[in-house]
Design goal:
The chain is built from ten helices and nine strands. It has 280 residues and is an alpha/beta fold. It has two domains: 124 residues, Oxidized Rhodanese, domain 1 (3-Layer(aba) Sandwich), CATH 3.40.250; 113 residues, 3-Layer(aba) Sandwich (Oxidized Rhodanese, domain 1).
Length: 280
């Protein structure tokens, strides 16, 4: 059975030694960029390879392309191949708890046409709470050839700008409510939001146990936001194109496919003072 959105800890444990499965540790801390790698070196789920948000899941920022621009597809495909991923593999991504960084990898693999990728529901926190096996051993990957093809699953700033005056597009911002209002901004030099955006803080996709809410609950929540707007007309943003992937994943879980990502998000948008912004 292919897993294309979520996988639970019991299912991953049952496949921990399955050569057809490739696991990635995506733990990260925006305030401490080396914390994820250090945590991985201390302990991780057996067989997991580490991917760094800044070095592996992003291209270098220029000051104009956002804090986490998408990497060159060919470069990223070589990274995946070096980790043993080919078109036959079931990929599982996890991070510390919420799934926000794992969702970035989930989206990027789908962007390249690889559907068999899932986020570990509850992440590393749930795995350890259940007392499951950990290791500090770094796996040796048998190199593979990952041959993907980028798909039209994202939009750029010009596309977003042109849609501001065009009805039928819904832009959903995954940041916390205060940052959406332009308050308490600590990551970007300017606070605010893209005009017309709606706010869906990514943590609202999770229940009290830090696992994703049931599909029916997510569908009801997003349906209330979208009304009659089809899911294919939705574009997701956040601060830098990372937590927005959490909302993309939640919509897929809810059976609302086809929404797209604005990778540059607010950090790119606000770099050009000619672009309009809202606050409050």
């Amino acid at each position: 059975m292919a897993h294309t959105t979520l996988v639970n800890t019991a299912e991953l444990a049952a496949h921990i030694d399955d050569p057809a499965w490739v696991i990635f540790d995506c733990r990260h801390d925006l305030g401490k960029p080396d914390a994820g790698a250090q945590a991985y070196a201390t302990a991780h789920i057996p067989g997991a390879r580490f991917l760094h948000l800044d070095r592996d899941l992003s291209a270098p920022p220029t000051g104009k392309n956002g804090r986490h621009p998408l990497p060159d597809p060919q470069v990223f495909m070589r990274t995946l191949g070096a980790a043993g991923v080919d078109s036959t593999k079931q990929v599982v991504a996890y991070d510390a708890q919420t799934g926000v960084y794992a969702a970035r990898l989930w989206w990027m693999l789908r962007w390249l046409g690889h559907e068999n990728v899932a986020v570990l529901d509850g992440g590393y926190a749930r795995w350890t709470q259940e007392g499951r096996t950990l290791t500090a051993a770094v796996p040796q990957s048998a190199p593979a050839r990952f041959a993907g093809q980028p798909r039209a699953m994202w939009v750029d700033a010009d596309d977003v700008m042109s849609s501001l005056a065009r009805p039928g597009r819904v832009l959903i911002d995954a940041r916390s409510a205060d940052r959406f209002r332009g308050e308490n901004e600590t990551l970007d030099p300017v606070g605010g939001r893209i005009p017309g955006s709606l706010n869906r803080f990514f943590r609202e996709n999770l229940g009290a146990n830090a696992c994703f809410k049931p599909a029916a609950d997510l569908r009801q929540a997003f349906g209330a936001m979208l009304g009659m707007t089809p899911s294919g007309a939705v574009v997701h943003s956040c601060g830098s194109g990372v937590s927005a992937c959490h909302n993309l994943l939640a919509m897929e879980i809810a059976g609302l496919p086809g929404s797209r990502l604005y990778p540059g998000s607010w950090s790119e948008w606000c770099s050009d003072p000619r672009r309009p912004a809202d606050k409050g």
